[in-house]
Every structure is written in structure tokens, then in C-alpha cells.
């Protein structure tokens, strides 16, 4: 089978290997197990640090396209030339392939959504990795992609994989998930002790969308209330300097540690040592780090975005943040007094997360291909 991937995620060729963002590669390698030939249409340049991994497929064809950014006037002007070029490449490769796989949302994914309309008989899948909540406030390009993908007249012979279960969806919309761990690791759940120093962890991009500064503020407030705790931050981003300044000004150097981007096994070890995950995001698709943390019995503290309330069973498997430091601190203090509710949250969260293993994920992918 010839399998075509259309994505805004950049792909790189170096030392006879095709590489891309590591978590994305991990998922795509499972799709590639069931196909003979892969073509990837994506940007081939990216100028920021990126945790990369190599694709496993033996036969990969990379078709490079411009990034289609719209950051300034010159970017917008360049679209006049770039968009027709990308349309042509998409159409050309869709003719050749057996299965079209779109990765959305994104500018390349948007063009893919439009061009696939001309191939109603081709077998297709789309992975919408963003927030599928119909009520969410999103950019027009995201809303347009969701509308095209949901329209069964324009989008035919396609399964659209979305995070969470939402009411009044068209028949081609399929609730899906992302997995990180194998069934073999289920037995390795460490027992959490909430009587000693509490270990908090933040895993994600150090950017405004993830609100890492709120994690600092929450831990700082707990310290002021007499709670012994530590915060480990994993990730890099534009707010790193702001975070370093905050740590210095608030004298949190002995409490907060910045680890930067780390391999999967290092982050896994951090989960095993942690009691709580803080993720005060503005928006998410499937917040992978939440499911990963829950797998190891970590209680998540998360904002109610996208499918998070469903993941947390509306507060039975974790704590839903209000983003009011005083209120969130009081909620945590109240739970720490008894601890039994926290222990139940940890157990229920782990049991829920254990359903979504790599084995199940791979089996579900095979059904789609």
C-alpha cells in the first residue's frame, strides 16, 4: 500500500535518515507498520530546537513544501506563489497514493482538507490533534478545517480521529486517543506517599499557551502555606528566561529545577517520583502528558480545556484548575488533609490510563488502514 502523509510538522533528512518531532514519529511509526511505501508532504526547515527521532519505514519519499507561515506582511505576500505550488504537489501525490492521511490542524493540513475533496473514492484518515470542542474559540483556519472534515458531502470515505467524545457529530467522526506506554509497564506503578515532601512536575513547552508561570505561582503559594514541595520543569521555550527570573526574584532556586528537553525515559522516571502534574494550558488536543502522568499514579492539576474534563471524569481522576491561585491552593490543601481522596484519584487515574496502551493503539490503527 502507498500511504501519503500530509502535515505541517517539519521533516528532516540527515545521515540517510528521515527525522521529525519525536512524539509524532513514535505514533507515525505505528501507522507505517501496515504499509509498504510512505510519502510525506511537509515543510523541511525549522529553526528552533526540536527533540527529534527517526522514522522506521524502509521506503520513504519526502516532498518538501514551504511552511506557509503568516507572521508578517512578506509571509502573506509569499502565499500568492506558495499556495498554488503546494496545491499542485498535494494533487499530484494524492493521484499516486492508495491512502491519504491528513494531520490537522495546520496550514498544510488545511490545503490537504481542500484537495482531498477531489478524491472521494480514495481511502482516507485524518488525525485532528487539536481541540475538537465545538464551543471552543479558535482561529478561522482551524474552524474551517473542522467544518470540511465534518462535512460528509465534501469529505467522503474518511475517518476523522478526534480527542474526546462530543455531541451531535457526523458519522465519520471517531473518538480516538494517543498512547505512550506498553501493557508490559502496567505492573510498575509506584505507591505514592503524600506525607513527605510533595513532588510536582510540569512537562511541556515553556510558552504562554502552557502557562508554566502559573505552575511556579501555585507551588510558591503552597510553600507560603507551609507545604513542603518541589517542582521539576521539563521543556524548553520562549518563556524560559521569564521563568528563570521569577525563580531568582522569588528565591525558589532550592525548590524549582529546570531540566530542559529530556528523552522519554528521563521524563518517565520523573513521573514515577512525582505526586502531582501541573498543566494549566490555554488549549490542548489530547494532553498526552496528562495521560502519561496518570499512568504512573500522578494526580493531574489541569485546566478544563478540550477533552480534559472527560479524561478526569469531571474531577474524580484529578483536579480541575480555576487559574485562581488562592482557590486552587485551598482545594489542594483540603485534599491533603485527608489524603484518601487523593489516593483514590491516583488509582482511578491509573486504571483509566492503563486502557490506552500502545498495543490497543496499534490494533485500532490497523483497522483504519
Topology:
Blueprint: E1 2-6, E2 12-14, E3 17-21, H1 22-32, E4 37-42, E5 52-54, E6 60-64, H2 73-96, E7 99-104, H3 107-115, E8 123-128, H4 140-150, E9 158-163, E10 173-176, E11 198-203, H5 212-224, E12 229-234, H6 240-249, E13 256-260, H7 264-273, E14 276-279, H8 288-295, E15 299-302, H9 308-311, E16 319-320, H10 325-338, H11 340-353, H12 358-368
Key traits:
369 residues; alpha/beta; Rossmann fold; 2 domains; 7-stranded parallel β-sheet; 6-stranded parallel β-sheet; globular; glycosyltransferase activity
Structure notes:
This protein has two domains: 175 residues, 3-Layer(aba) Sandwich (Rossmann fold), CATH 3.40.50; 171 residues, Glycogen Phosphorylase B (Rossmann fold, 3-Layer(aba) Sandwich), CATH 3.40.50.2000. The termini are close together. α3 packs parallel to α4 and α5 crosses α10. It has twelve helices and 16 strands. The model has no long low-confidence stretch (mean pLDDT 92).
Q: Mean pLDDT across all residues, rounded? A: 92
What is the spatial order of strands in the main beta sheet?
Answer: 6-4-1-7-8-9-10
Strand content: 15-25%
CATH domain fold name of the largest domain: Rossmann fold
The helix fraction, in percent, is 25-40%
The parts where pLDDT drops under 50 for at least 5 residues are none
Oligomer: single chain
Please state the CA-atom Rg, rounded to the nearest Å: 21 Å
Tell me about the biggest sheet?
7 strands, parallel
Q: H/E series, N to C? A: EEEHEEEHEHEHEEEHEHEHEHEHEHHH
CATH class assignment of the largest domain: Alpha Beta
Number of strands: 16
Shape: globular
Distance between the termini: 9 Å
- Tally of discrete structural domains: 2
Structural class: alpha/beta
Count of separate DSSP helical elements:
12
CATH architecture classification of the largest domain: 3-Layer(aba) Sandwich
